[in-house]
Each structure stands twice: as C-alpha cells, then as structure tokens.
Amino acid sequence: MAGTESLLFTTLGTHSDPDNSEMELDCQFNEEFKFILLPVTYAVVFLLGLGLNTLTIWLFLFRLRPWDATATYMFHLALSDTLYVLSLPTLVYYYAARNHWPFGTGLCKFIRFLFYWNLYCSILFLTCISVHRYLGICHPLRALRWGCPRLAGLLCLAVWLVVAGCLVPNLFFVTTSPKGDTILCHDTTRPEEFDHYVHFSSAIMGLLFGVPCLVTLVCYGLMAQRLYRPLPGATQSSSRLRSLHTIAVVLTVFAVCFVPFHITRTIYYMARLLEADCRVLNIVNLVYKVTRPLASANSCLDPVLYLLTGEKYRRQLQQLCRGSRSRPPRASSSLVLVSLPEDSRCRWTAAPQDSGCPTPWADSL
C-alpha cells in the first residue's frame, strides 16, 4: 500500500476518519487494509453465522422442545447472533465501496445500534448460562428454584429491554456526514461531541461488559474448584466433561471476541481524547480495526457451545444430517449434577415438562 492513493490525510480536529470515528490526527494514515479486511471478514461471518444460527434456531423451535433454562438462554443467544449477522451485508457494501453509505442516516443509526445491542445481549446471555451452570454444580437445591424455564424466559426478555434502553443514546450520537463524493456512516459521533461519546461508551462498557465478565470469571472459578472434588453418582464423568466444555467455550469466546475488542477500543478512544503521539495513534488504530471483526466472530463461535455442551442438540443434528425422523421430545435439563431431594417442592408427574421445573436426571440440552 505504498502509493499515495492509499494514504488518508487527516488534520487535528478538522477532518473525519472514514471508518468508525473521527480520527483526530495530524499525520499521514494508511488504512487501505480495512477495505479488504472488513468486507471479507464480515462476508465470511455473515455466511457462516447465518447458516449456523438459522439451523440452530430451527432445531430449538422444532426438534428440541420442551426447553430447559439453558436451552432458553441458548435460543435467545442464537436469535441475537442471527439479528446481528443480518445487518452485515450493508457494512460489507459500505467498506467495499470505500466508506460510502447510500442507505440514509436512519439505517446508519439502526445498523450501528444493532451491532452493540446484539454484542452486549450475547455477552449477557453467556453470563446467564454461566450463572445457571454455576448454580447447578455448586448450589443444586437453589438451582431447582431458580432454574425454571419460565424464569429464564423472563430474564432473557429483561436482557433485551435493558440493553436496548442503555444504548438509546447511541441513536443520537451516531450520524452520517458528507466527505467529498462519499457519505460516511460514523460509528461514534461528530468530532465536537466525541468526548461526551467516550464517557457514554465507557459507562456502557463497564456496565454491560466489565460486570458480566467479572461474574463469569467468578462463576467459572468456583465451578472449577468444585469440579476437582469427588462427585457422587454414575454420571459424574460426563457431567464434569460437559461442564468443562461450557467453561472452555465461553471463556474462549470472551478471550477471542470480547476482551481484545473492548481493550483496543478503550485504548483507541483514550489515545484520541488525550491527543497522543502520531506513531502511537497509528499503531492503536491498526490494532483496533483488526479486532473489530473478532467481535463479530462470536456469531460463528457461539454454535460451538451448543454442539459441545448439548447431547440432545448433537443427537438431533446427527439425525437431521442422516435424514432420519426425530423421536418424541423429552423434558431435558442442563443441571446434570442436581439430585432431586424427596422433600422437594417440585413433584414430577407423567408429563414433567408441564411442571415448569427442571428434571435433573434427564439429558442435557
């Protein structure tokens, strides 16, 4: 990218970066890589994510009922990922057209809102799965009370609404602006409001990423400590393996998709706000834009969680691939380490799925 056409010139406080935000720089900046990196990666995520999550939603709706609490969280996680990948074709066009947005300001606001809405919903749904697993392993009697699918459904609804409410200001910050013959769709806001946006973004990151990440780490730390102890029952080996799979996949998604994106974005915003050295800004900007596709990749990695932790999911997927019919659904529960006490308030009938409580001895998802 050595040609002069590959260099973007910006001047401190007067010009806009054509990608995500207004780069307050006073130096030459080479960003040709993003016109290849972002369209290609977003296109790949769109194709893989749409295929995997559409299949997952179909399985949950037609082959995996009735749901337990974990299945409820995973369905909403797949729905969130699907909504996100449906917004990617417009971004593929935007970056392939070298930062030209012909779709209007309203759709620009909606697409940017949809990215963060589904990003943080995915984080919170993964946190819900982590807490649910923690209760099933470390506090099985409490899990009988708090692990009902109806409660999980209400919690998922609360996640959708709370995240949307927190991100409403983003609709006012995000806008479009003309730049020569192109129209930019900013990921942040105008240069004169950038400091306010940084404060808003930092608060959102702490609330919707920092707190859930801490909760997830604490839950998995306590789960790992518990799994090292001997467990009664014949199913302890498969139960431990399933729980370890959950820990590994969720921590991988956080480590690969969420943590690098939030760290580099924070450093990038702070470097701009503090008007850091040009060389530092170049490096930070490059790393930040490279991690943006990683945040999108969680839409492709989340289905791995369903595959590794759900025996029933794997069984139905295998039957679908072989073209065989599914067996009548059975009530299932992910609380595989729970044993039902005789004096439990949950009483199982011939149709346990009508009770609204988990069936601890059944298959996991």
Automatic annotation (TrEMBL):
Name of one Pfam family that matches: 7tm_1
Membrane topology: Multi-pass membrane protein
GO cellular component: plasma membrane
Domain G-protein coupled receptors family 1 profile: 52-306
Molecular-function GO term, any one: G protein-coupled purinergic nucleotide receptor activity
Superkingdom of origin organism: Eukaryota
Transmembrane helix is among the record's keywords: yes
Signal peptide: none
Protein name (Swiss-Prot/TrEMBL): P2Y purinoceptor 4
Keywords: Cell membrane, Disulfide bond, G-protein coupled receptor, Membrane, Receptor, Transducer, Transmembrane, Transmembrane helix
Record-linked PANTHER family: P2Y PURINOCEPTOR 4 (PTHR24231:SF21), PURINOCEPTOR-RELATED G-PROTEIN COUPLED RECEPTOR (PTHR24231)
InterPro entries the UniProt entry points to: GPCR_Rhodpsn, GPCR_Rhodpsn_7TM, P2Y4
Claim: Methyltransferase is one of the keywords in the record: no
Organism annotation: Bos taurus
Chain segments annotated as transmembrane: 40-61, 73-95, 115-135, 151-172, 197-223, 244-263
Cellular compartments annotated: Cell membrane
Family, similarity comment: Belongs to the G-protein coupled receptor 1 family.
GO biological process: cellular response to prostaglandin E stimulus; G protein-coupled receptor signaling pathway; transepithelial chloride transport
UniProt xrefs under SUPFAM superfamilies: Family A G protein-coupled receptor-like
